[in-house]
Design a protein that fits this description.
Blueprint lengths: L1 H14 L3 H12 L2 H56 L13 H20 L2 H14 L6 H26 L2 H9 L1 H21 L2
Helix pairs in contact: 1-6, 2-3, 2-4, 2-6, 2-8, 3-4, 3-5, 3-6, 3-8
Length: about 200
């Protein structure tokens, strides 16, 4: 029953609109499937960070979560604002050039991974979700081993969901249609990220 509640709460959280979804959508359109999947893996890695933090430091969180949340709130809000601003300033005539350079491909994948990781790891609402899960859903009597399995599941499930979404969005016909309106999608993405950033910064 505990796992079912955990999986249900996670599913509701992961499919809801937010920074992770917005980033994956944009990466799928602008960078293509490999970069979008790398971004998805980065998001899943951010989930692992939140889960590990809750598993290892939950007693500390109880006494210091306020201070930690404030720091994460301003760091995350600033980061979302910056990537939103960069999207608004993206050039309309962006090109999609394929490169055979292994080094360039690796740098692109690393950048995509970092984007996904930072977007999730610096999201204070994601941390609050995990604090809620590990205090309200998971029993204090649940063993460390089982808690660790839960954390692994959450990271893997998140990666799988966004990787699947990336695959669907990068089907050639669908991506071609998105690219035809790329500039306006960039503007929409920028507005969404800046709105989310403001929401994070002014939240209690």
């Amino acid at each position: 029953m505990e796992f079912i509640l955990l999986a249900s709460a996670h599913l509701a959280a992961v499919i809801s609109p937010g920074p992770d979804l917005a980033v994956v959508l944009r990466q799928s359109v602008r960078q293509g499937r490999p970069a979008a999947i790398a971004t998805s893996i980065g998001i899943g890695s951010g989930i692992f960070c939140h889960a590990t933090f809750c598993i290892v430091a939950l007693p500390w969180i109880a006494g210091h979560s306020g201070t930690f949340y404030v720091v994460l709130k301003y760091a995350g809000g600033t980061y979302l604002f910056i990537i939103g601003l960069l999207a608004l300033r993206a050039k309309e005539s962006a090109t999609f050039l394929k490169s055979n350079s292994v080094a360039k491909t690796q740098r692109k994948q690393a950048s995509a991974f970092a984007l996904g990781f930072l977007t999730n790891a610096l999201n204070p609402k994601a941390l609050l979700f995990f604090i809620s899960v590990f205090t309200l859903i998971i029993s204090p009597d649940t063993s460390l081993f089982v808690r660790t399995i839960y954390g692994i599941y959450l990271g893997v499930a998140t990666t799988g969901y966004f990787a699947l979404l990336s695959t669907i969005l990068t089907i050639p016909r669908a991506r071609t249609r998105f690219q035809a309106h790329q500039h306006w999608l960039d503007q929409l993405f920028g507005v969404i990220m800046i709105t989310l950033a403001i929401g994070v910064l002014v939240s209690d």
